[in-house]
Structures are given as C-alpha cells and as structure tokens.
Design goal:
The structure is a single chain. By secondary structure, the protein is mainly alpha-helical. The protein folds into 2 domains: 31 residues; 77 residues, no CATH class. It has 5 helices and no strands. It is globular. The C terminus is likely disordered.
C-alpha cells in the first residue's frame, strides 16, 4: 500500500508542478502580438508606389502573414534581403501569387523607410 500512496502523491505533485510551470512559461513564450503600421498619408508619402498597392499589401499581410507571426520591423532587413530571400520564401509558405507578393513587398519597403516610428508599429494588440 505504501508504494501506491507514494506514487499517488508523486503524480499529484507532478501535475501541480507542471501546471505551475505552464502558467509561468506560457505568457512569456507567446509574447505580445504586434500590429503592422496601417497605411497612412505619411507611409504613402515615403513610398514611390500607389497608395492602393500599399493598402493591398497591408491587407494581404494581415490576412496571410499575421496568421503565422507578428509584424517584424522590416527596417531590420536590407531591401535586397526582403526582395530576394524573405518574400520568395514567405510567398511559397503563404501560397500567395506574384502580384500579392509584390504588394506585400511594396508595403514592407515603405514601412521599412518609416522604421519603428510608423504609427502602430510595435504597438501591442489590445
């Protein structure tokens, strides 16, 4: 009987310990979600593409990219890296077409020019 009781106590302690660890680690592992900067007049002014293309890129980003990961400041990447490495891979993973890839890329390059100063960039989701 003693071994069964000892095992039962150990299982109970283990369950409580694991629950406590999950409560402590889970919020930190998920981290806060961040918003991509919306297409504003300022964002459109730093870009050399039509505002409608930026808006399309923003919408596609929100519908496709943001499903898998939070917005990352594109200023952390070189334009060539975004163009030739990141977007082709993300296009494949998100199954978007070439026109949508170009719209997202135009949006990211414009947001890159504003960096983390863009309205909404880095703002935690309420």
């Amino acid at each position: 009987m003693k071994p069964a009781r000892h095992l039962s106590v150990s299982a109970s302690v283990l369950r409580h310990t694991l629950a406590g660890v999950a409560i402590v680690l889970l919020p930190g592992s998920c981290g806060p979600a961040y918003l991509a900067p919306p297409v504003t007049r300022e964002l459109a002014q730093v870009s050399r593409v039509p505002k409608s293309l930026l808006e399309r890129g923003y919408i596609i980003h929100q519908e496709k990219c943001a499903k898998c990961h939070p917005f990352e400041d594109p200023a952390k990447y070189e334009v060539a890296e975004l163009t030739h490495e990141i977007m082709p891979e993300m296009r494949r993973k998100s199954k978007i077409d070439s026109a949508d890839e170009q719209a997202v890329l135009a949006y990211l390059i414009a947001a890159r020019q504003l960096g983390s100063q863009a309205p909404g960039a880095g703002a935690p989701v309420p």
